[in-house]
């Protein structure tokens, strides 16, 4: 039984660390420092190795959400051009030709009847133009609405870029976290194997029981299961990152500084003020509310008449054909004012009023949400910082306690339960340190995504 466990442990450790054997736990050495001495997992092939900047750039390039947001910006600019084009006249070119077998009547000239007849065919061409002299303020309102929609699209594009950046960085940090947890699991396997060796030696010396050996074998198996789970998590994140950045395979992350800089670019008060007034989500909501107010103004212009100037000139042959266009020019001024159109105007104004009210309420709620999110993320950031410092002390304490328990158990002073407890506490301390580190990273990039700028 003991030989079978040692063969399993040797196979697992040898497969996971074929390039470099991890060093034994050293008092005062953090889990991050030990994990850095272990190469990336070698049970699957990494198709690419990218830095964090390359990962973010590739994610933005291949993101369909960012492409859609960018298209919305282009559509907004096109709508602005249409709104400005309403101040230009509409120009139309017309041309036609007509052939008929109908004979035209003789022309009467000075009281006499002429025998000459014109051909029954007719052809003509002409230019016509029309221009709205007065629209009741509809065109300026449509321009204001189009500009606001474009500004909202710009803010939404920034928001989507940072949201995509957040997703990419979360998965990238997930890869690094998985790698560190693989390292923690390998150290746990080493300690479990060492405890099994001590229990077997003490059993032969008569200072331990068979239960100690069985419990040590169970600890090795549990450590092996934890190692497999860590590998699965690493593999999932690595291949998920590959999909996000357009790589067919797993992606490894490099170039991330293991030393955390806890200093932010702005103080907390400025961060909260920026979130409330300048966050991309806040800007998009404000511009959407502004555009809906402009659409409401445009809808109300239907209660005013429209005055239009139109004119044109036609070139045509001389034809007596009925319906043939005559050569000449035309200028006219007209107005259109629907006195009643089946309550269409009232419905348009009612819908625009509802949309404006909803947009205004949404903008107010977005301001409050941004403030609450900024407060919560700042608090979580400080908590993660404290958790890192606490976890580092916990790791140092756990390592020293485990070293002492190994010596005490080997000399028959401590029980195997004491040694097992020390092993679990040391492994949990390392896991807590890894979790605290990457919680800090994720919280920080979440705050940057909220603000729409790096910190």
DSSP helical segment count: 10
Strand content: 5-15%
Instruction: Write the CATH homologous superfamily of the domain at 2-72 and 144-289 and 353-451.
Output: Outer membrane efflux proteins (OEP)
Please tell me the overall pLDDT.
81
Tell me the name of the CATH class of the domain at 2-72 and 144-289 and 353-451: Mainly Alpha
Termini separation (Å)? Answer: 56 Å
Shape, per Cα inertia axes: elongated
Secondary structure class reads alpha+beta
**How is the main sheet built?**
4 strands, antiparallel
CATH architecture of the domain at 2-72 and 144-289 and 353-451: Up-down Bundle
**Helix-strand pattern:** HHEHHEEEEHHEHHEEHH
How many strand units?
8
- Unreliable spans are 1-42
State Rg.
Answer: 39 Å
What tags apply to this protein structure?
Outer membrane efflux proteins (OEP); 13% strand; alpha+beta; four-stranded antiparallel β-sheet; 10 helices; two-stranded parallel ribbon; 8 strands; 455 residues
